[in-house]
Records
---
Amino acid sequence: MNAMPEIALGPVLFNWQPEAWRDFYFRIADAAPVATVYVGETICSKRAPLFSEYFETAIERLQRGGKTVILSTLGQVVQKTDRNLIDSICSVEELPVEANDVSALHALRGRPHYGGPMLNIYNGESLRFLAERGMRGVCVPAELSATTLAALCAVASELGVTIEAQVFGRISLALSARCYHARAHNRTKDSCLFVCENDPDGLELSTLDAHSFLVINGIQTMSHSYLNLIGELPELQRMGVSRFRLSPHSCDMVQVAGIFHAVLKQTLAVEEAAAQLGALTPRATFANGFYYGKPGHTWQSASPA
Amino acid sequence: MRETEILQRPELICPAGTPAALRAAVDAGADAVYCGLQNETNARNFPGLNFSIPDLEQAVAYAHARQAKVLLAVNTFPRAGRFELWRETVDAAARISVDAIIVADFGVAAYAARTHPKLRLHLSVQAGASSPNAIRYFCEEFGIKRVVLPRILTVAEIAEIHGNAPCEIETFIFGNVGMMAEGRCSLTNYATGISTNMDGVCSPAGDVRYVPNAEGNMTSHLGCFMIDQIGRGESAGYPTICKGRYLCSGRTQGYYAFEEPQTLNLSALLPDLIRAGVAAFKIEGRQRSRAYVTNVVSAFRRALDDVLAGRSPEIASLLALSEGQKETQGAYRSKTWR
């Protein structure tokens, strides 16, 4: 087994009100049993200035709460404002940075850094190449199956690279240059008037026969279902995953973190944990199909540990 | 266009899903043809398509005898534990002397650069390099000679990238237009369990269903999700998730949440793209028939030759190629697309 397993909190992917964003991190800092917190705008460079006045305050509070803070970069870099945001985050020397696109890798190579889930790291050869250039840890793409993940973990352990996997929250499925939030409201990305701020967990898309399917978050398309690998935590730990990422939603993330933490510490049974998660997110449907090599939206019963 | 202007001659890069299509493309005036092997090492891994190793050897001989190049797409992302197949593919490409391989994965690119330093590398659109620094990274690390740009940039942005990138630029000019950044989409896997990035398939035929309903309409499905409803007399588009119609709050009826089904056609922008410094124009469509390849390649050969000779290209024949589909200039014309 690798390093001590820990809970990490991924970056807030949605456009929350600046004060809500700040208070979320204050509460995480004070009360959540998470070891690492990723902070930064990963979806839209237009959003970054909205909460920038609280950026340093939130980071300080998290650090005072004993959390390791890692800055997270933009996933899709096209416009000048995108490139400026990459430059400003990657020039911070006091904090480690997680790259979500290759332009950030360009800025970060040669010093210790992390690889985010929007980078395409699918195999040990890629991991080895990136580790030689300073990558210390990777949050793997959500579409990896257990078999692939185990093979990747084996290489990571040789290289001393930390493997992290998302275990809770909607899954990032696609990125575009077009803002689908703006499109839904007959606007364009440049004239969006920040319409995404009305959807703290994304804008739901259903099929024409009214089945829940996807969620729009600016240029990002996400799963409607919440990824939930609470039942797979023991197996993930055995294969060498040592960091478990919760992706923030508007539900009580302190409690979500507490549930995952308790299962990792073996003070809460998986069945009870699953029931508690369901109660915390009454509107969410859960999925774990990718892990089993099945369609990502499906729910597979965990094989007995 | 100013008559005295001398334009750099870009290559016309054409798709070949089969050896017959490859010969058709070469005969119709392709400067280079791109293709893939019959497995998941390339992003058009469809049944009945692509090349065996002997096919590829013959294709290279045919093309080289006619001064055309062959580019091999090795542009998917090997899942951990399966890397050997990509390694063998790269080795075969070097042995057969294809003119370049088109790669996307860090590991595959690193292997090719290390093992076959003389093998020319192009960066696939699947690598999603959409900014100068991302392109620089691939050029500096792997000696990439040409980057295929994602279909999400305006002509002005392409010109800016050309001024800042240490390699040649290739852009798509015709064919299917994907709304999602290439190489960064797992929608198909979410619906079907088959990964576009790892298996090389978007919307696998085995998961596609068309269901007629009582009103004489039809619905199209991928996996267990309805992608679109097709009215009587409407042509039934192939169900890909990013071209479907969906419901969302604030909308009274189903709408194309991502994009309407349409064909990318940049024939009117050819002069602008050449001035932007584009070294190669790519036509999409390895899944298309030999006849289609002949038509599209000949039309673009003529159009390109016209532009280079200072004549206005005859657009009508190009418009007819879209087979009744609506046409778009996608992201290329203006930022308002976004």
---
Amino acid sequence: MKPEVNGERCMRCGACVGTCPVNTIFLKEFTLEINDDCTECGMCVKVCPIDALYMGGD
Amino acid sequence: MDVKEGDVLNYDIVVVGGGPAGSTAARFAAKEGADVLVLEKRQEIGSPVRCAEGVSLSWLEELEIDNIDSSTSRTMKGAILYSPAGNKLKITERLAGDEVGVVLERDRFDKDMARLAVKEGADFMVKTSAVGLIKEDGVVKGVEARYLGKKFEVRADLVIGADGFESQVGRWAGIYDSLKPKDIMTCFQYRLTGVNMDPDFTHFYMGSSAPGGYVWAFPKDENTANVGLGLQFSRLKGEKTPKDYLDEFIENHDDYKDGEAVDMVAGAVAVTHPPEKAIAPGIILVGDASRVVDSMTGGGIVNSLKQGKIAGEFAAEAVREGKFDEEFLQKYEKRWRDELENKLWRNYMAKETAMQLDDITFDKIIDALSNIELETVTIGAILEGVKKKYPELVEEFQNMI
């Protein structure tokens, strides 16, 4: 499963966007969008300065 | 400016991103007679601030700026470096020369840079996102954009990507590879008020408080400072976030622990070597989008401004000549690299070594330096200073002296 965003934590800083190796995360007006070509590498989860992303469960 | 769904605007140059690099590129392109439009995706230029706001002042003249008084928060007398054991090294104004700096009001600063661009004739649109490149027969002809829910086109012969760390223009153009984990710094900062550090110096804390990076405190007034850290992505184990590291640092430092946060900032910076390319046909990159952040400090403003000027002047030249192919754009590559690349590489290599240092080594370095009279604060002078007391520490850096 691709990562999920905790909208209450996310500061929309773009750290995950610039880190994503396949450029599949986008900053939207109020949230982040992670597209389906996510490879589930987890780099965005790790780079997030404030723990706003987590790997989704099934 | 208002636009309707489906409108087509015509410019010579469209700049994606209204930060210091984009505004400066726009300013110099407009000054040389080009028609320029800057698109800023956020509703306010300069806000929210994603910056520690400390900057040197050695570049004003080169950038044709009289002064930045209106966007200066506080002028510094120098810097203090702290080793993990608490050894201190004070670098005063006399030593740092014109490298001494100020702490900015960055939101104000970005608007001032935009104002200078508008003065030269550049147009701006805020709350406007570039969403894709327009290509005809494989040639870039501008960008598709959205403004208040309306889709429109900006037709231009040259697209300047000034869209920062998360640059979309660079990725659309396929200009660079993804970053290596060791070359990404992930950052977190509070603006704390009610703190007690010396308000006339910037403060840098080395060592394991911020693995692979450092903690900074940049004073905004007598009792307020931006206190933040950047740490190396590849050192994150997944248990502690940058915020956790910063909270821990603050809790353990008497100067800061009674401060209250009035602001909080997150972000990431690429501390990587200069990119192989900052151009593609019809596209040039500038600022963070072209990865010109100084790897040792993580600072990007000054390099962005210098490169922005080069980009703007070049862009106007390209418009005059009507040439936007890769061969012509190589002129831009050469010009910005002549100005910035040596130092970018040198500081990248220095960072690669500095990131490996452990707390004991930082203690020794600061100890050695605090006992001698430094003549200047170049990397070379620092290494010479350390060599006198701990020659074995300097071996790895020998080639940089």
